[in-house]
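Support case: NAI complex. Customer-provided input:
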Amino acid sequence: MMSSQQVSEKCEAAFRQKPTTNEKLKIAVLGGGAWGTALASMAARSGHRVALYARDVTAVDDINRNNRNERYLPGIALPAGIEASTDAVSVLKDAAVILAAFPAQTMRDALGVVAPHVPVNAPVVLCAKGIERATGRLMSEIVSGILPGNEIAALSGPSFAADVARGLPTAVTIAAARQEAADRLAIVLSGPAFRCYSTDDLIGVEIGGALKNVLALGAGAAIGRGLGASAQAALVTRGFVELRRIAEAMGGRPETVMGLSGLGDLMLTCSSPQSRNYSYGMALGAGESLEGRPLAEGVATAPIAAEICVSRNIDAPIIIAVSALLARHLTVDEAVEGLLNRPLKNEF
Ligand SMILES: NC(=O)C1=CN([C@@H]2O[C@H](COP(=O)(O)OP(=O)(O)OC[C@H]3O[C@@H](n4cnc5c(N)ncnc54)[C@H](O)[C@@H]3O)[C@@H](O)[C@H]2O)C=CC1
Ligand SMILES: O=C(CO)COP(=O)(O)O
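Agent response - structure generated as follows:
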């Protein structure tokens, strides 16, 4: 039996362990919005050489001159050392790792334009959370067609851009079809306040990230309509069952969505008005205008997720209801009534 002194020494030693690499690389970040800028900040804090491609000259100037991106991350001081540019060629030159942070619905076009300049030996980490509306494809499926020679990975988990840009701590999952590739990226991208876990379940991680946005819209709508925290919790829990079913039907593993890119991100996004999807849902539920709101990826993912469920016969009434709500085919009250009056059944 260890003495309590020995136990506390062992615990303290475990907490003092440092990450296993000091490797400093050139990281190219594509997309100068909130998430691209936050990821660039995170990589700069880890001491990497960071180049950021943004199409918006104002954002580029703001980052280079002021260490700010006021348009997308207002009031946040970014670390020094991010070299922003509108020239994708120079950003991508000699990059060891590429983080693609374009919105999901523009990933195909935006990455397609810069693809000829992507070094073939650099892994491409997809940081968008969504399913392509027009095709039902996951980001990895799209990008492996555009960049067939590159290792494709995905990064997902509970991580508001503003939190990450401020250097607040969180943990995410990095997935790649080859576990060794995911392991290496997790080591390279982990930083003082950014802990990366790894997995080879690319599909599970992508589905978790994409569908949590749809459920956040539903959770927000329930709150916006004044249905209360119990309704919100029931909706998210049953929605999580649907998310797991869909992930499995598409080839992902159920345990993956119980991790950071699934349960973790649901906890964050389905409860905080800091989430654009949740706050979009709140506005929808409250009957407010939806014009000019910031990007809410779930709005495009919901209809295609619903179509996938219907065509594959996957039982997902909440995701289908969110899609119908967004299309104005149902009101919140009708959606709730429909969900509550489905035939009763065993929970599992
Ligand atoms: N903001 C956040 O907290 C997080 C966002 N994400 C995901 O990251 C992705 C991007 O989101 P945000 O950066 O937040 O969106 P955002 O709206 O803040 O920025 C999007 C950026 O993409 C650029 N862009 C769009 N189309 C482009 C094109 N064709 N070529 C070049 N640039 C283009 C825009 O100019 C803008 O700079 C989304 O899928 C989102 O779900 C993931 C985790 C956290
Ligand atoms: O994915 C996110 C946090 O993990 C960001 O969520 P929103 O896009 O809803 O703001």
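The pocket of NAI (ligand 1) is lined by residues 31-36, 54-56, 72, 101-104, 106, 109-110, 127-130, 159-161, 295, 297 (CB under 6 Å).

Case will auto-close in a few days if no follow-up is received.
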